[in-house]
Design brief:
about 20% strand; Dynein axonemal intermediate chain 7; Chondroitinase Ac, Chain A, domain 3; IC97/Casc1_N; 15 helices; IC97/Dnai7-like; alpha+beta
Length: about 725
């Protein structure tokens, strides 16, 4: 064993490195390290050089694209200028229709007044006010004309461009609306009094009291007269309905009557504020200048084969107005001036990058020609019980609840009908009785009155509504004062108790459908598109054909009756009103930004986008993109796909476009990309307008269809987009 151990030690000594060998190994390792470092350095330099070269190539390519865009910018703006003439033509047509409507009313000669003529309205109101003792049927018949007059006045205030209405006209129309509201309610009170005087003639065979339901398309009147004053009849249910009430013993044993008067309209809430132009003189000057331009163009007949020269002349004589002074929401004048002023700057220096001067943030309001005011601050009521009508709205009409003094009944004596007349008209029965010194605790012993009302099936509530009562002194809706409020949404019944009676209504959130989950605008025929808006609660399709719109489809279930709205053609303003009154409000107001978390966008960029979407709507489908939230307020992003023969655009056929009002580009990303990137799609260019960017990829058939689009159709699509504002509220 000994010699073996010795051999092992000798082997270990042989493996030990000498000093020179160690130095040599260290030198080799150092050389290897230096070589690796050199290779890494050269690789880094090579990569940096390649990156720099790529960046320079990309920069040169970008500069070439920008220069190319600058060179054709004037030409593109000129073409867009000519295309957007359709909006001015539409405004002229609508103005002619407004003027002709007065003539058509005149030759109709049906005896109804022209609501825009103050003397005729005053005469109509005075003559009807002088009529006495009209029965309920006569009042209901006349109420249809009154409601029609109110609707016409409201549409005049809504549809007429603000610069065409003077302050005196606005005040006159609003005064007429208020007078008609008051007169109509007065006449229904008068007719109710006439009916109650004859209550004994309509007594029920079982109870001896009068129970009556009078129903019309606009109103429903439930009247009960306590003729027998039998305390046993305290709970009343009208006919086959669930509507009724339970009154305390004091009322059941008194000469009382109970009226539940349901109106499908709201004549209690304050009138909406009519937008007024900030600087009417500037807008009038622009319109006058534009008229002069057209006159000049008609006088200057172009030579044969000189169309381009004629277009240049048309461009040169357009007046330049500073962008900060005139802001018109759907006014082609503003957009044309904005585009052309940029074009003129670029004619002087095509190499310079365009500078977009934008005024402070503005809000787009629906309407034909309006200024774009600053976003107003929504004043929230300090009293938490007061309903904020900027964020909430009465829905389903008004329920006027009344406890009335039963008037003396008519008596038949020897063939004569004798009626004791009491001055003062319909008298309210004071309940609870006023506090007196003889019975100081009487006010604490009177039970509340219980009511049961039914929600009409032509109104859609997507959440449990709030109940509100009208405060006559405060001129506001309030949510306090209700006792034991109970909702049966399956049967659409609401029961509640009140210590005293008021007009009551149901309240719904104005922004229950905002923000939208998605949207799509797709063509379905010649001058026809469907705008689909998907919200948290429903899916809505609005069909546009020529200048008319209709609600084509909505998902609300089978428990609703919307025949008054579905598949009914009307103009866009009437459709907006009807959809709001039904509970399908997808139309933001100027205050909506304070109540909804919006996808904030520059209003001028948004407006330009809608206009060019309308121009292309005959052949292209536009859709919501998730990247619209990632591109900032100065840009909008949307999906675009040509749609001519198919019903829908396939998922792999969509393209992503970005537009900032001055430059449009097609992006490389798609909806399934992980991160946002503004990188251009390969083999694409830059354009000054979204229209020309999309035109690069359009077929000849698509462009031919776009050129043949009706100008009223383009205007209607634009107004619908401006009313729904899909780019901001989705």
């Amino acid at each position: 064993m000994g010699p073996k151990k010795k051999g092992k030690k000798e082997g270990e000594k042989k493996k030990k490195l000498t000093k020179s060998e160690r130095l040599k190994l260290q030198q080799e390792e150092e050389e290897r390290r230096l070589k690796e470092e050199e290779e890494a350095r050269l690789k880094a330099e090579r990569e940096a050089a390649e990156k720099l070269e790529r960046e320079q190539v990309e920069k040169r390519k970008w500069e070439e694209l920008v220069e190319k865009d600058q060179l054709r910018r004037t030409e593109e703006f000129e073409e867009l200028f000519l295309l957007e003439k359709c909006f001015i033509d539409a405004e002229k047509w609508k103005k002619e229709v407004r003027n002709l409507s007065k003539w058509f009313h005149y030759i109709k000669c049906d005896g109804s007044p022209d609501p825009s003529v103050a003397p005729e309205m005053n005469t109509f109101i005075s003559l009807w006010k002088e009529k006495e003792n009209e029965d309920i049927d006569a009042v209901i018949k006349q109420s249809k004309l009154v409601l029609e007059l109110i609707e016409k006045l409201e549409l005049v205030l809504l549809d007429t461009p603000p610069h065409e209405l003077t302050d005196n006209q606005v005040a006159q129309y609003q005064t007429s609306i208020m007078e008609l509201r008051e007169l109509l309610h007065f006449k229904f009170n008068e007719a109710t009094e006439t009916l109650l005087r004859q209550a004994s003639s309509f007594g029920d065979t079982d109870s001896g009291n009068m129970e009556m339901i009078i129903k019309d398309e606009n109103v429903t009147l439930y009247v009960w007269a306590n003729l027998k004053k039998n305390p046993k009849y305290k709970t009343i249910k009208f006919g086959d309905t669930d509507i009724g009430f339970t009154i305390p013993k004091l009322l059941a044993s008194s000469d009382t009557a109970v009226r539940i008067f349901h109106t499908n309209y709201d004549h209690i809430s304050p009138l909406s504020v009519v937008p007024r132009p900030v600087k009417t003189e500037i807008i009038d000057a622009i319109i006058e200048d534009f008229t002069n331009i057209e006159t000049t163009q008609e006088e200057a007949v172009p030579q044969e084969g000189s169309e381009e020269v004629a277009e240049e002349q048309e461009l040169e004589i357009v007046p330049t107005v500073p962008e900060g002074e005139v802001k018109m929401e759907e006014s082609t004048l503003f957009i044309r001036q904005s585009n052309l002023s940029v074009s003129k700057e670029e004619v002087e220096s095509k190499k310079e990058e365009p500078v977009v001067k934008r005024s402070k943030k503005e809000q787009i309001l629906p309407g034909p020609v309006e200024t774009i005011p600053e976003v107003p601050q929504a004043e929230v009521p300090t009293d938490e019980e007061v309903v904020d009508l900027k964020g909430f709205t009465p829905l389903g009409g008004i329920y006027h609840l009344n406890i009335l003094q039963l008037p003396p009944q008519a008596k038949q004596i020897k063939g004569w009908t004798i009626v004791e007349l009491i001055s003062g008209g319909l008298q309210k029965f004071v309940y609870p009785p006023e506090h007196t010194d003889d019975n100081p605790e009487s006010e604490n012993h009177h039970k509340p009155i219980e009511f049961v009302i039914t929600i009409n099936r032509n109104v859609v509530f997507f959440e449990k509504p709030m109940m509100a009562r009208w405060d006559t002194e405060g001129k506001a809706w309030r949510t306090d004062g209700f006792i034991s409020l109970y909702y049966d949404m399956a049967e659409r019944n609401i029961s509640f108790s009140l210590e005293t009676v008021y007009p009551v209504t149901l309240i719904q959130d104005n922004h229950i459908h905002m923000p939208y989950e998605s949207w799509e605008l797709r063509p379905v025929g010649d001058n026809e598109v469907i705008l689909n808006v998907t919200t948290t609660f429903t899916d809505i399709d609005i069909h546009v054909k020529d200048s008319q719109c209709m609600l084509a489809a909505v998902e609300v279930g089978e428990n609703y009756e919307l025949s008054h709205l579905l598949k009914k053609w009307m103009n866009i303003s009437s459709l907006i009103i009807a959809m709001k009154q039904t509970g399908l409000n997808i139309f933001p107001s100027e205050y909506s930004g304070a109540y909804v978390a919006v996808n904030d966008k520059d209003p001028l960029v948004e407006m330009k986008t809608y206009r060019q979407m309308a121009l292309l709507a005959s052949s292209f489908s536009f859709c919501w993109s998730k990247w619209n939230q990632a591109c900032g307020p100065q840009n909008v992003i949307l999906k675009v796909g040509e749609l001519l023969k198919k019903e829908y655009v396939e998922d792999d056929e969509w393209s992503i476009y970005m537009y900032n009002g001055e430059r449009a580009q097609k992006l490389k990303i798609n909806e399934s990309s992980n991160t946002f990137s503004g990188e251009l799609e390969e083999h694409t260019e830059l354009h000054s307008t979204l229209y020309h960017m999309i035109k690069d990829f359009a077929s000849k058939e698509a462009m031919e269809k776009i050129r043949n689009s009706n100008y009223l159709f383009v205007d209607a699509v634009c107004k619908l987009l401006l009313s729904v504002r899909v780019l901001t509220y989705s």
